[in-house]
């Protein structure tokens, strides 16, 4: 009897060890390669238009990798780190989502952007089309898109979960009727990684104190009279094979300007874009009159990338009093512009050293 009991105990121990080994093999994740992609020449930068993903690719920064298994974001209690970004959020609920790191040196972050922590949200499922002038949207969690087709609409203290689909925007007034839109204390993110999901798209609008993340482009400006201030842009989706880019890599930007003027970008925090923090092109019309000031700017091959797109020089570019992170894929390329486009710049420094930023010609 004693021999039989010892034999059974021995078999049980072997089975337990084998089971534990199997569990470890299943749950152990491969080591991630967080080394940034090396790009050394300005000529390798792609021209930028609407971007859209096809096959997920790790971002050049490990913290901005689109996650296959979304996990809740956690609010950091550690020291500020301007190069860290939040994790991919879980399936949204009616409670406000927590975000990644605290603000860096007073710049926008989880404590001063997006939906206020004590705000109770009501769920709206499906697209929301606004056709009433002066309408105020307050305290919603929209599982869909918001399209503004009336003047002077305000969207505030609202979360927008953008559905998957091709070239869609969480909030848009990209029409002839939605001028004067104000978007304040809003969070916009994609429901999941999908082709061409962007944050806010349009013209004649003000975007402030908002958090936009886990989309391709956070802001796509298609015309003039736009103010973007005190927002937190982070964790762009980047994809290696993009059908909207002829099968090449997606051109994810924190802000892209494809036409218009009288545009101010002030007091924002940018991390996580692969192509550019601010990309200025003239894809649909001339661009003239852009002010970029007082931001914490990072990301991209070059962080501010100005292209003429065959329309001649971009006019009225002023870039001043910004702090630049040292995370560009091209070393030291904070601002790149064609020699024919003149850039007025002053007071731009590297965030880590305080050294003056120099312009690059491309």
What does this entry show, briefly?
With 362 residues, this protein is mainly β. The protein is built from 1 helix and 29 strands.
Helix-strand layout with pairing:
Elements: H1 2-27, E1 55-56, E2 122-125, E3 128-130, E4 136-138, E5 140-143, E6 146-148, E7 154-162, E8 168-172, E9 181-190, E10 197-202, E11 205-208, E12 211-213, E13 219-221, E14 226-229, E15 232-234, E16 239-241, E17 253-257, E18 260-266, E19 269-270, E20 276-280, E21 287-293, E22 296-297, E23 304-306, E24 315-320, E25 323-324, E26 335-337, E27 343-346, E28 349-350, E29 359-361
Parallel strand pairs: 2-5, 3-6, 4-7, 5-7, 6-8, 7-9, 8-10, 9-11, 9-12, 10-13, 11-14, 12-15, 13-17, 14-18, 15-19, 17-20, 18-21, 20-23, 21-24, 22-25, 23-26, 24-27, 25-28, 26-29
Antiparallel strand pairs: 1-16
Describe this structure in words.
This protein has a single domain (about 50-360), classed as Pectate Lyase C-like. The protein has one helix at about 1-25; strands at about 55, 120-125, 130, 135-140, 140-145, 145-150, 155-160, 170, 180-190, 195-200, 205-210, 210-215, 220, 225-230, 230-235, 240, 255, 260-265, 270, 275-280, 285-295, 295, 305, 315-320, 325, 335, 345, 350, 360. The protein is built from one helix and 29 strands. Helices cover about 5% and strands about 35% of the residues.
Largest sheet data: 14 strands, parallel
Number of domains: 1
In the predicted model, the low-confidence regions spanning at least 5 consecutive residues are 1-102
Q: If classified by CATH, what would the architecture be? A: 3 Solenoid
Count of DSSP strands = 29
Number of helices: 1
- CATH class reads Mainly Beta
CATH topology: Pectate Lyase C-like
